[in-house]
Amino acid sequence: MAERNGGPRLQRLGLVAGSASRHLNRWVEYACAALAVVLVLTVWLGVFVRYVWPLPITFTEEAARYLMIWMALLAVSCGVARREHIGVTLLFDRLPQRLRRPGVVTLDLVVIGFFAVILWFGIGFAEKGQTRLTMIYGASKFLPYLAVPVAAALAMVQGLLVLVRDATAPEPPSDLAESHLELR
Question: Which of helix, strand or coil describes residue 132?
Fold first, then answer.
């Protein structure tokens, strides 16, 4: 089967891609966890200063909103790495075994293309954020809007790594959920 997929060199490339995907995914998960901790602390602070000890701290609502956006968008790449993104598994599960690898590759190319479009428009979106101001402090919205192209770029990288990993595997995945088991 190794010769059918380009031999041991391509399989090694797939192993390297799988390893890179796992490492990148781990760092993104750490970042999401850190953002979640800061988000919870920010919300608690907001509740505390509103109901327990009234202080003139007004940034908590806005900060919580932007932290949640960053966390949610970064987590998209984790879904791509684990193949937990939206996919047409009903059709994939009904494909004959010989068509599953081309099906996975096609799905990965669609995912990469989708996130390339999001990245393209997200860059312009972030640039426009430089001239828009937040409601409470009047700060530039560039940093909050930057979450869109950063998340899209991470999802594209994960999509490419998953594509290489699964396209060079000795056997195509029997279902989409099975291809990510090495991440856990």
Answer: coil
Q: How many CB atoms lie within 10 A of CB 86?
A: 8
Cβ atoms within 10 Å, residue 104: 24
What does the pLDDT read at residue 100? 83
**For residues 155 and 170, which has the higher predicted lDDT (pLDDT)?**
155
Task: Identify which of 110, 85, 83, 84 has the alpha carbon closest to the alpha carbon of residue 172.
Answer: 83
pTM for this structure?
0.84
* 133 secondary structure, DSSP code: B
pLDDT at 184 over 70: no
Handedness of CA 90, 106, 162, 122 (dihedral sign): negative
Q: For residues 129 and 13, what is the distance between their CA atoms, to the nearest angstrom? A: 39
Between 11 and 27, the more confident residue is 27
Quick check: 156 and 167 in contact, CB under 8 A?
no
Greater pLDDT, 181 or 147? 147
Domain edges within the chain: 8-178
Locate 158 and state its tokens: 């994960």
